[in-house]
Amino acid sequence: MSPDIQFADDDQAFVGSQQFQDIKNWTHEHLLTRIEELGAEFGRWSRASIQQFVELELDSFVRLQRVPINEREIQLVADALTKELAGLGPLEDLLNDPAVEDVLINGHKNVYVSRRGILTREQIRFSDDDHVLRIVRRILAPLGRRLDESNPMVDARLPDGGRINAVIEPLALDGMSVSIRKFRKDPLTPAELVKLGTFDAGMAQVLEMAVRARCNILVSGGTSSGKTSLLNALTTFIPETERVITIEDTAELSLANAHVVRLESRQGGFDGAGLVSIRDLLRNSLRMRPDRIIVGEVRGAEVIEMLQAMNTGHDGSMGTIHASSPRECIYRLEMLAGFAGYQGSEVSLRRQIASAIDFIVQIGRLSGGQRRILSLSEVTGVNDNVVAMQELYRYEPQVGPDGEERDRWVSLGIAPHSPKIARLRQTLARSTQGTAEGRRG
């Protein structure tokens, strides 16, 4: 084992030990006393000044109290205290790690992290639930959100596009629960998703054609299956000349297009006043001259406005929905429309869905954490009062000679029937023919 790996293992063992927590707590109390003596002056210090202050005070404290730790361990405690006073404490390194997708805190002793779709338990710990609450309140303070007995639950968007959800006692029975979802600063492109194995090049071509042909697409899948990342990637196929309006509960999409209007719903106050729902935003967006409407997640009464928009000239609209299969996606649309008070018959609703939705992309997270498109289906109409679909691609992994599964998408040999794609093919063919004639001339 190399010395660097040995040092790293020793550091992890020390940071996860009770000794580290005790020394950090003792010195933290000492530092808070010194900060009170400094008063307002401390608030004007830079992070570098705070770090220098922590190192000097910690060195003095360790010598006077004869704390049995070496220089390397002193530096680890100093770094932790600097993060505690000037940053986000134990969460800081996790939130700065680009590989981390989710941070989940189940009480102060249990911290889990998702990397590449796989949850693992982290060594870091908080002193107690008050310590967790103090850090979460520090995150929420610039957002103007509160977390206390009168507001025991909070859901907020972070400045970097991430999301935080926190629940405190007595609603959370085993200590404070915190869920932080991170998003990439540079969203994945279709080419990167192909490289990661989310889908193959053949499916990428079909999806690009569907988006450019202004087909209406729903991305269906479960929680943390990669729906938003896929939707974000699909929007890169939208021509730069088009005006795109995104509508979300919590803004997660990050479109690279030039002309984008981002709308986010607003929760109501204690008495419900000031509520602005996704449905309200969708209605208003129709008056904003959109070329395309992107709904971050369809999960309520807005389904009726979305179907009407798709059926009345707003082609090329897209959204995500929670469902376990393309057929379940159709059932969920019907259920949501029923909850929203749809007045027509079941048959007319299914006809609306069939004429509104062109493609359903089913994405899922496999047991190993990989995110894969499981199915690409085209909605073809209504047969015998049932929404008819045809599957164009299906995910069927193949077991290799070494016993390992290899990704494979099977094309069922069916060309998309959508007239929108047929028109695009004709336009491309005319363009290619015109270019060829120009060269011959």
Can you lay out the helices and strands and say which pair or pack?
Blueprint: H1 3-15, H2 18-38, H3 40-43, H4 47-65, H5 71-86, H6 91-96, E1 100-106, E2 111-115, E3 118-121, H7 129-140, E4 153-157, E5 163-167, E6 177-181, H8 190-196, H9 201-212, E7 217-221, H10 227-234, E8 244-248, E9 260-264, H11 278-285, E10 292-295, H12 302-311, E11 318-322, H13 326-339, H14 346-356, E12 359-365, E13 371-383, E14 386-395, E15 398-399, E16 405-406, E17 409-411, H15 419-440
Parallel strand pairs: 7-11, 7-12, 8-9, 8-10, 10-11
Antiparallel strand pairs: 1-2, 1-6, 2-3, 4-5, 5-6, 12-13, 13-14, 14-17, 15-16
Stretches with pLDDT under 50, minimum 5 residues: none
Query: Total helix count?
Result: 15
The N- and C-terminal alpha carbons lie at a distance of 71 Å
CATH architect. name of the largest domain:
3-Layer(aba) Sandwich
Major sheet details = 9 strands, mixed
Strand line-up across the major sheet: 9-8-10-11-7-12-13-14-17
CATH fold label of the largest domain: Rossmann fold
CATH superfamily of the largest domain: P-loop containing nucleotide triphosphate hydrolases
Judging from the principal axes of the Cα atoms, what is the shape?
elongated
Helical content stands at 40-55%
| Radius of gyration based on Cα positions | 27 Å
Tally the structural domains: 3
Query: Would you count the extended β strands for me?
Result: 17
Strand content: 15-25%
Structural class, from secondary structure content? alpha/beta
Averaged pLDDT: 85
**CATH C-level label of the largest domain:** Alpha Beta
